[in-house]
Amino acid sequence: MKAFVIKAGSTSFEGLVQVEKTKPVAGPGEILVEMRAASLNFRDLLIPLGRYFGGPVPTDLIPLSDGAGEVVAIGAGVTRFKVGDSVCGTFFRNYLDGPPAAADRPALGSPIDGVLAEYVVFNQQDAVLIPSNLTFIEAATLPCAAVTAWHALMVAGRPVRPGDNVLVLGTGGVSLQALQLAKAAGARVLVTSSDDKKLERARALGASGLINYKTHPEWHTEVMRLTNGHGADCVIEVGGAGTLKSSMLSLAYAGKIAMIGVLSGFQGDTNPHAVMLKGGNMHGIFVGNRAMFETMNTAIEVNDIHPIIDKIFTFSQTAEAFAYMQGQSHFGKVVLSIG
Ligand SMILES: NC(=O)c1ccc[n+]([C@@H]2O[C@H](COP(=O)([O-])OP(=O)(O)OC[C@H]3O[C@@H](n4cnc5c(N)ncnc54)[C@H](OP(=O)(O)O)[C@@H]3O)[C@@H](O)[C@H]2O)c1
Question: Which fold has domain 157-284?
């Protein structure tokens, strides 16, 4: 079968190469999935660059955590799925429910092989049915980006409720999934972006507060102005150290900040005074568990949410897709079709 690997020691996208591998077989309790699509997350760029946890990959590794496909064979004892089912693997192996704990829960795409291959075997416990309203291309965006957004909005701290102000930073994959899920929950959504055209596209998705963070470097003042001094009840914090100060100053009383990303780098003013004054909460988010994924899929079906796909590349255009994503001109998700 065709697959991509990141070569051991890779520090550039040149380390991404297409290879032939033996087609895997579903053992007891496992399902064999013919992959139809996979999508890119920010972390997927860092891994071939040798800049993810632990540095360059020590052995050849199949990239990407997020993909969707069809079950084409099942091993002995499989009860959760049948041949013909449409599924996604979960980001973490062996993480079904509950809070994070010190357990062996490796993630797809690093440190264990990911989904950029024609066939992938999952343990039946590490997969979910895709929402019935989604295509494979759309469902391929869910395991990391959407589950992270759902966890932040609906599981960490007080769940978002109608009338809340939800602030999403930028218009990348996690942020737009959060925008869509928050709207479905009845929230008002504010979006920051470096690009006015992207803000207009966010408005078309239902965002009601639009802030250009380049022309408004002190963008928390705009959050306060646009919410009549109330602030954000939930901040989808994908920027990290460089945006945290403004996120804290954007908070509503008793609001929450979901600490998710590092897009702005590692330097910033992290004086937490503003959180104290607001009686706010900060929650670390690391994707989520299978139960979150399944609950979110129900919300996606009931509300007929369709993830925002910026661009679809073919399997052989994988290196191009990585370079495109790195350019940050995308709005939503970058997806690869497989097969
Ligand atoms: N903790 C977790 O479980 C988890 C899960 C998923 C992702 N993450 C992290 O979350 C972050 C987002 O991931 P992603 O896959 O959604 O990324 P992505 O799609 O690559 O997002 C890129 C977009 O982020 C925006 N951006 C970049 N720098 C920014 C800044 N300084 N302030 C505000 N927005 C900025 C830009 O939007 P505009 O062009 O509109 O400005 C850019 O196009 C990454 O750091 C990723 O590692 C963490």
Answer: Rossmann fold (3.40.50)
Return the residue whose CA atom lies nearest to atom 35 of ligand 1: 170
Prediction pTM value: 0.98
Query: What is the best residue among 263, 325, 333 to mutate for testing ligand 1's pocket, by most ligand atoms within 8 Å of CB?
Result: 263
Q: Is domain 2-144+289-337 classified as CATH 3.90.180.10?
A: yes
Per residue in 269-314, pLDDT (tens digit) is 878 899 999 999 999 999 999 999 999 999 999 999 999 999 999 9
**In the chain, which residues fall in CATH 3.90.180.10?**
2-144+289-337
Q: Is 151 in the pocket of ligand 1 (CB under 6 A)?
A: no
pLDDT averaged over every residue in the chain: 97
In tens, the pLDDT along 68-94 reads 999 999 999 999 999 999 999 999 999
Index of the ligand 1 atom closest to the CA of residue 43: 47
- Out of 41, 151, 203, 235, mutate this one to test ligand 1's pocket (max ligand atoms within 8 Å of CB): namely 41
HEC profile of the chain: CEEEEECCCCCCHHHEEEEECCCCCCCCCEEEEEEEEEECCHHHHHCCCCCCCCCCCCCCECCCCEEEEEEEEECCCCCCCCCCCEEEECCECCCCCCCCCCCCCCEECCCECCCCECEEEEEHHHEEECCCCCCHHHHCCHHHHHHHHHHHHHHCCCCCCCCCEEEEECCCHHHHHHHHHHHHCCCEEEEEECCHHHHHHHHHCCCCEEEECCCCCCHHHHHHHHCCCCCEEEEEECCCHHHHHHHHHCEEEEEEEEECCCCCCCCCCCCCHHHHHHCCEEEECCCCCHHHHHHHHHHHHHCCCCCCEEEEEEHHHHHHHHHHHHCCCCCCEEEEECC
In the chain, ranges of CATH 3.40.50.720 domains: 157-284
